[in-house]
């Protein structure tokens, strides 16, 4: 079977295996006892927050009791999604003071991540914080320490470790099914305004409907900007652009599947701003090469051309090809034996080559009727599978059982540092080097 007949071609590989989800598919027939219910508050009900809220309340034994939102229309949206009276506030501290709340979901702009995580831990609240975990490279270590000191569950919102696809891929990579992995490649492309974070601005957005000063928080103080509030990923003051929104998914998947427990050693980035010249200060094309101790990784994203999400773990005995990065539908293993299938004698005289070929074939060719074709094996998620649902379920289970999070602060920090390395290299036009002892980035 040729490569074109894999998942991307819409044809199942020769061997197809369906994986099973771990999160419950729906609400159980019997209600969850109140004593077993996890009650959460959400901070931020924007695009990602609204999606997380809808998913979280669909899980059995989970209840939303409060929402913090700085934009009045999104306060109404929160009430609509939950469908019953809940506490609504502009101060997330009110949620931390609420004794009814067990944990916080915090899908807020990146520049608020550290402050909210620290405050949650100090208030005795577990917290699910969106990716990337940090806005600056130094922020992660105090967050790790706060989680340990206060014995809090901190889970970062890159859902790859909870995905049955990545879990199975990790298992097979550990078994060595594709040999030694020397290179990982990831690519993703978008070609729309929404894909480039040029989101539609609500008509009623104004200083009267948004608490702008609170939203700015630790960021530089500037006059109210509809664009920055709605499209904050486009500015370094609030987000990390491509690396923090998109690279982070690939990096999380790579770190999880390859058992990476530290940031990469070095990173080199090329890119540019070619199309979306709307005042943003982050690129719309980025390619970064990462150096890990035992392999290299190349990540590529463009916001100017639509392209399937895909990445490949490339080993000495084959390729493990994941289809979809944020919510993959499956992966295919394309085996290779790494052997010659005919003599390599292009510069030999004809008679010598012919004689050697006969001898080689007698020694290496399989006996008639014993040859087995090398076939690809495809692994697929269940229909309608949602890895974000799995990730939230795992978080709430950690809150209930006090078992470690599947993506804790230390893991999230390592992946976030890799994001910062990509941007450091791009903006400084230099190779970024991770100084583990000094906990800082330097230039090669």
Description:
The chain has 444 residues and is an alpha/beta fold. The protein has a domain of 243 residues: Dihydrodipicolinate Reductase, domain 2 (2-Layer Sandwich), CATH 3.30.360.10. It has twelve helices and 17 strands. An eleven-stranded mixed β-sheet has the order 1-15-14-13-12-8-11-10-9-16-17, covered by helices on one side. Strands 4-3-2-5-6-7 form a six-stranded parallel β-sheet, with helices on both faces. β10 and β11 form a beta hairpin. α9 packs across α12. It is globular, with a radius of gyration of 25 Å.
Key terms for this structure?
single chain; 444 residues; alpha/beta; Dihydrodipicolinate Reductase, domain 2; eleven-stranded mixed sheet; six-stranded parallel sheet; 12 helices; disordered N terminus
CATH superfamily of the domain at 3-20 and 161-203 and 226-337 and 374-443: Dihydrodipicolinate Reductase, domain 2
Terminal residue distance: 45 Å
Strand percentage: 15-25%
Main beta-sheet strand count, sense and barrel state:
11 strands, mixed
Average pLDDT level: 93
Uncertain residue ranges: 1-12
Per the CATH scheme, the topology name of the domain at 3-20 and 161-203 and 226-337 and 374-443 is Dihydrodipicolinate Reductase, domain 2
> What's the CATH C level of the domain at 3-20 and 161-203 and 226-337 and 374-443?
Alpha Beta
- Quickly count the helices: 12
Write down how many β-strands occur, each being a DSSP E stretch of 2 or more residues. Answer: 17
> What radius of gyration results from the CA coordinates?
25 Å
Element order, helices and strands? Answer: EEHEHEHEHEHEHEHHHEEEEEEHEHHEE
Overall CATH architecture of the domain at 3-20 and 161-203 and 226-337 and 374-443: 2-Layer Sandwich
Principal-axes geometry comes out as globular
Give the helix level as a range of percent: 25-40%
Which strand order do you get reading across the main beta sheet? 1-15-14-13-12-8-11-10-9-16-17
């Amino acid at each position: 079977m040729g490569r074109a007949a894999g998942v991307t071609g819409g044809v199942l590989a020769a061997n197809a295996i369906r994986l099973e989800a771990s999160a419950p598919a729906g609400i159980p027939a019997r209600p969850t006892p109140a004593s077993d219910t996890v009650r959460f508050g959400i901070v931020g009900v924007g695009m990602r927050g609204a999606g997380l809220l809808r998913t979280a309340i669909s899980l059995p034994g989970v209840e939303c009791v409060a929402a913090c939102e700085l934009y009045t229309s999104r306060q109404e949206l929160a009430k609509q999604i939950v469908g019953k009276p809940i506490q609504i506030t502009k101060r997330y501290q009110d949620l931390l003071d609420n004794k009814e709340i067990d944990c916080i979901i915090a899908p807020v702009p990146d520049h608020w991540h550290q402050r909210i995580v620290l405050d949650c831990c100090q208030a005795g609240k577990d917290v699910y914080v969106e990716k990337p975990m940090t806005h600056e490279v130094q922020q992660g270590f105090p967050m790790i320490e706060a989680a340990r000191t206060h014995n809090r569950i901190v889970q970062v919102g890159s859902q790859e470790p909870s995905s049955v696809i990545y879990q199975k891929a990790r298992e097979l990579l550990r078994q060595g099914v594709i040999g030694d992995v020397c290179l990982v490649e990831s690519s993703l492309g978008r070609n729309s305004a929404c894909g480039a974070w040029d989101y539609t601005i609500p008509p009623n957005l104004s200083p009267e409907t948004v608490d702008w000063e609170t939203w700015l928080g630790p960021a530089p103080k500037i006059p109210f900007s509809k664009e920055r509030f709605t499209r904050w990923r486009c500015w370094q003051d609030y987000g990390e652009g491509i690396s923090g929104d998109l690279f982070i998914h690939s990096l999380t998947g790579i770190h999880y599947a390859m058992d990476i427990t530290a940031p990469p050693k070095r990173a080199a980035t090329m890119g540019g701003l070619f199309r979306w010249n709307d005042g943003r200060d982050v690129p719309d094309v980025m390619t970064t090469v990462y150096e890990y101790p035992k392999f290299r990784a190349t990540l590529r994203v463009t916001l100017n051309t639509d392209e399937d999400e895909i990445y490949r773990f490339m080993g000495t005995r084959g390729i493990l090809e994941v289809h979809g990065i944020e919510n993959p539908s499956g992966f295919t293993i394309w085996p290779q034996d790494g052997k010659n299938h005919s003599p390599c004698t292009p510069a030999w005289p004809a008679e010598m080559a012919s004689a050697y070929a006969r001898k080689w074939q007698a020694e290496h060719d399989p006996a008639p009727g014993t040859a087995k074709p090398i076939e690809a094996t495809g692994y697929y998620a269940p229909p309608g599978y949602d890895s974000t649902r799995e990730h939230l379920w795992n978080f709430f289970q950690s809150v209930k059982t006090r078992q470690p999070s599947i993506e804790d602060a230390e893991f999230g920090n390592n992946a976030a540092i890799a994001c910062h390395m990509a941007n450091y290299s791009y903006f400084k036009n230099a190779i970024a080097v991770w100084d583990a002892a000094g906990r800082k980035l330097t230039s090669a």
